[in-house]
Structures are given as structure tokens and as C-alpha cells.
Amino acid sequence: MQKNIRTYVVGHRNPDTDSICSALAYADLRRQQGLDGVKAARAGNINQQTQFVLDKLAVEVPELLSDVHPRVKDVVTGEPITIHQDEPMSRAIELYHQYHIRMLPVVDDNNRAQGLLLLKRATEFFLVPTDPVKMRRIKASLHSIRRCLNAVEVNLVDPDSVDDLNLYVGARRESSFDCWVREMDPSRAVLITGDRPGIQLRAVEAGVRLLIVTGGGLIDDELLSLAKSKQVSILVSEYDTANTVWLTRMATPVGTLAQADFITVRADDLLDDLRIKLMHGKESGAIVCAADKRVKGVATKSHLIKSSPVKLILVDHNELAQAVPGADKVEILEVIDHHRLGNFHTDQPIRFINQPLGSTCSLVATLYQQAGLTPESTIAGLLLAGLLSDTLILKSPTTTEVDRQLVPWLEGLSGLSHAEFGAQLFAAGSLMASGAPARKLIFSDFKEYTAGDHVLGLGQVEVVNFHTFYSRQEELTAELFALRAEKGYELAAILITDIVMETSFLLTAGPSELPYVIGYPQEADNLYRLKGVMSRKKQLVPHLLKVFKGL
Fold first, then answer.
1. Mean per-residue pLDDT of the chain
2. Helix (H) or strand (E) holding 89
3. CB 76 within 8 A of CB 297
4. What is the pLDDT of residue 1?
5. Maximum CA pair distance of the chain?
6. How many CA atoms lie less than 13 Å away from 427 in the CB half-sphere?
7. pLDDT at res. 254
8. Residue 32's beta-bridge partner residues?
9. Is the pTM of this model over 0.70?
10. Domains of the chain, first to last
């Protein structure tokens, strides 16, 4: 089973109070119901009203998810298996079989990648028959050969030098050996022989680079003395001649066989980028490296089919266009929402709860009741805040009887008065009066909608009167036109809602024919009065979608 699974409960990219509070409350509910590793998150910066609520209830701001695109580090886990460039090939074979792997990063003393050793390439080098002359060649140091054989060191000369050597077996009669040895280059010869004193003597007299005596044979003092004078190295192997030959060939340092033009990726690289490199290249794997080339793991094609440990529960939205970037690349477990249905689809059946209530917090509160669980006071305060914010203190036409019935229950659990608390959170959240930049004000509660081939960008801000709006009308208009050009919207607009007078203004940047088709009384250039309109979702959006689908 995959470890470190993280399930985030997260709202839309421009989170409002209902989005944040419902995420926190629903994460608490799912934890109580036994879902492990679940936590609330946010897909964007919170607004002033939400910050006021969190400060008042002493709740930490949820973790920011800038995106959830699967990354290399999500699927390449565990400690990497590496091999030092000076280790013999025999050690690599052990690691291949011990860990059931097919490739090994070759590293230096500081664990920095120097190459990639592929099992296929290594076995081909040692097992596939080729030119007999090439098959006797090895490139190794005497120390590497000794370690590979676990041999007894009798006399070693310049043992750390990595040399190109030729491997021979002294299995001939002494009479023919003399002729044979003259055909060798003794300075590059490694001669392996058993209990054959005559062959051993002739090899030392010829000055071979290394004499290996197999079967644990003894070296007499005279032979040793001659070897020292001739600068001939001698090892004694406990293995028989056949196995000694095999292991000596395996003494080749892996650094000499490693592939130098290997692919590297970073742990934070997108998994999609790794997929492109592996599926459209010749290599079957890549080394995962830190910035200093230290090895962090090996990524293979099998990693591409692993699922991300990140799972999502979406609240207060059900359209991928509004979701945290990368949501379409990870598993979505549940959707808890109160908006219209969008273009949402999944590969597997999921829990999808969508109710026409005034807020997502109202829906979450009913889920507590259905589960027979009582939210503690802080959670109840969060649920009340989201409910009051989205229903404009129960004045929005989206308010339902369920919303109204939930208020006294949440008041009792939280110890808060809905009228007083609602007035406080709207006063604290008045961005229009705060002097916030026009773009920040527009994006404080902003959503995109699709109407046929057109995309509409609609923001909303609540005020207690229109005085401040009039002073900022020109600035906001200019920003809307800039936003429309930048994003390619057919309409960019902001709904300014007076929650006391229960009416709104719609400030727009749209096509030239808009005044003739929008169907609202025009108050001034780019400005329309929407008497009695309080809800973007229930009153404004359905009307605009109908208008723009007809264009």
C-alpha cells in the first residue's frame, strides 16, 4: 500500500469565507469519521473578512496549495541504491539481485552522480560472446581484484592503479607454456593457475603483472623472494580456477562501464516532464538529483503509472476551472458543494453531494447532524461564519429554510449571536473602504463562467453603502477593461452589493452591444442597477449565461 497519502479538503482558487470555513469544518468531520491524513487547505489568498473570522476564532490559516500536479518526489520514494565508481562489477551484480533493480547510479565520494549502470549493458559485456581477444580484457586495479576474490594478499605492487589487463589461465604443460608466455605482454598479464609450481615459477620469471594462485595454494619463500625482485604481484584465492576466472573478470570497476550521458531530473520536476523524457527518449530511467548532483533516487517508466499520494476533497465548487491547478491529475475523492453543476467527471465513482442551500457551510453542518456528531464550538463558529457570509446575513435570495434553521443551532454551539457576528464580519471584510488595490478588490471573490464560446469573469464585493464605490468607480472600470484584454474575457465585471439596501450595481467591461442586450437599467457608462439582486450565483449568473449564449 502506498504510504504518506495526503488528503486535502480545498475550495476554489479565489477562496471566500464559505470556501475556507467549509474546508476546515469538513476536514474536522472526516477526521472524526476515521479518514486518515486529511487536512484543510486553500487554493489562493484569503480575504479580509475570512482573516477576521480566523483571528476571532483563533484558527490557523489553512496550508496554501499553489498546485497539486504530481511531481517526481511523489512517486520516487525511499533511500536510493547507489554504487561507488571504484566498486567492482561483482558488487553491482549483488545489488541488482538484492534489491531487484535494473539500474544503478554510479557515484563519487560525495554521492554525486557520475554515471548510470544498466543491468542489461553490464550483462551483455560479460555474458554475450564476442571477440576472444576482447573477452580476456579487464580494466581493474589489483585492490579491486583482491576485494572481488576476497583473496589473500601475498605481494602487491602499485595496487591502486587501474590498468588495462589481459586475463590468462595457466592450464598448459610447462613445455608449451614457455612458448605461450612469450606471446603475452607480461606487464599487462594476469595469470591464474592452480597448484602448478612450474607454471607459477615461469610466470614470475616472465614478470607478469599479477599471479593468482587458486584453491588456497601456498607460496614458497623462494617464489615470493623472486616475485619481489621481479615486481610481480601475487594473490591467493580460495576459489577454484573456474570461479576465480569469473570473479576476476567481475573485478572491473563499475565506473568504467557506466553510461556517462544519463538523464537527470529534480525531485520537484513535474511527473509529466519525466514522462516526456522517458517515453520519447531512448533511456529507460533517469537519476533524481539535488542541485549539487547528489543522488536522491532513480526514476523509471514503472514510476509513471504510480498514483500521486495527494488526494482531494473539493468543497464550494465542482468545476476544474475553479479548482487548484493540477486537480485533474490527482484523485478526487469527494465533492461537497451548493453551486450549479459544471464539466466535472472522474474515472471512479465518488461521493458527490450538491444541495441548493445558501452556503457550503450549511451543507457541512447538515452532514454533522446526519452523522450524529456535534461540532465543537470553534468549528460551529466557522460554520456560522460561512453561512452568514454567503447568505448576506440571511438576506440573500439564495437563503433557504434549512439555512435559517441551522442558525440557532450553530449560535448555541459557538456562543455567537448571528446578527452581531454577521455585522462584524461584513464590516471587517469591506475591501471597498480599505483602500485595497482595484485588482485585489475584483479578485477577492472572483469566478469564471463559460457561456457557449464565451468566458465571463465575475467578481463580487459586499458594502454597507455605495459611497466608497462612487469614489473608486473610475479606477475599477479601468482595471476591468485591462483584465478583459489580459484574460480574453467576453465580459469582465464586478457586482457591488449593498447588503443593507438589498440592491446591487454591476460595473462592466464588455462588448459594445452589451447595453442593448444585458436587460438591466443603465445607470451610467458601463454601470447597471440591479434592484433586488443580491446573489451572483442565483440571480446574476443564470441571466448573463442566457444573454451571452445568444450572442
1. 90
2. helix 89-99
3. yes
4. 36
5. 118
6. 6
7. 86
8. none
9. no
10. 6-69+309-428 (3.90.1640.10), 84-256 (3.40.1390.20), 431-549 (3.10.310.20)
Please say whether the beta carbons of 524 and 532 come within 8 A. Answer: no
Report the candidate in 251, 269, 303 with the shortest Cα–Cα distance to residue 80. Answer: 303
333: part of which helix (H) or strand (E)?
Answer: strand 331-337
Which neighbouring-strand residues pair with 259?
A: 116
- Which grid coordinates are listed for 303? 514510476
**% residues pLDDT > 70 (the chain):** 97
Residue/partner pairs of 325-330 with CB below 8 Å, 24 or more apart: 325/66, 325/67, 325/68, 325/69, 326/67, 326/68, 326/69, 326/70, 327/68, 329/68, 329/69, 329/70, 329/271, 329/272, 330/68, 330/70
Burial of 182 (0-12, 13-18, 19+ CB in 10 A): exposed
Cβ atoms of 363 and 355 closer than 8 Å: yes
pLDDT beyond 80 at 300: yes
Cell of 164: 588495462
DSSP output for 250-261? TTSBGGGTSBSS
165-182 confidence digits (pLDDT tens): 999 998 777 777 877 777
Are 264 and 240 a contacting pair, CB within 8 Å?
Answer: no
Alpha helices in 250-395 (DSSP H): 271-279, 360-370, 377-390
For residues 169 and 379, give the distance between their C-alpha atoms in angstroms, rounded to a whole number. 81
DSSP annotation of 466 reads S
Residue position matching grid coordinates 446591487: 504
> What does the pLDDT read at residue 359?
96
CB 295 within 8 A of CB 289: yes
Please tell me the distance from the alpha carbon of residue 382 to that of residue 362, in angstroms, as a whole number.
Answer: 11
For the chain, give the number of residues. Answer: 551
CA distance readout (Å), 138 to 125, 326, 396: 11, 51, 84
User: Amino acid identity, residue 528?
Assistant: Y
Pick from 5, 16, 145: nearest CA to 443: 16
Distance, CA of 69 to CA of 330 (rounded, Å): 7
Which one, of 47, 10, 48, 42, lies nearest residue 26 by Cα?
10
Q: At what angle do helices 119-127 and 89-99 cross, to 10 degrees?
A: 130
Average pLDDT, integer, range 488-501: 92
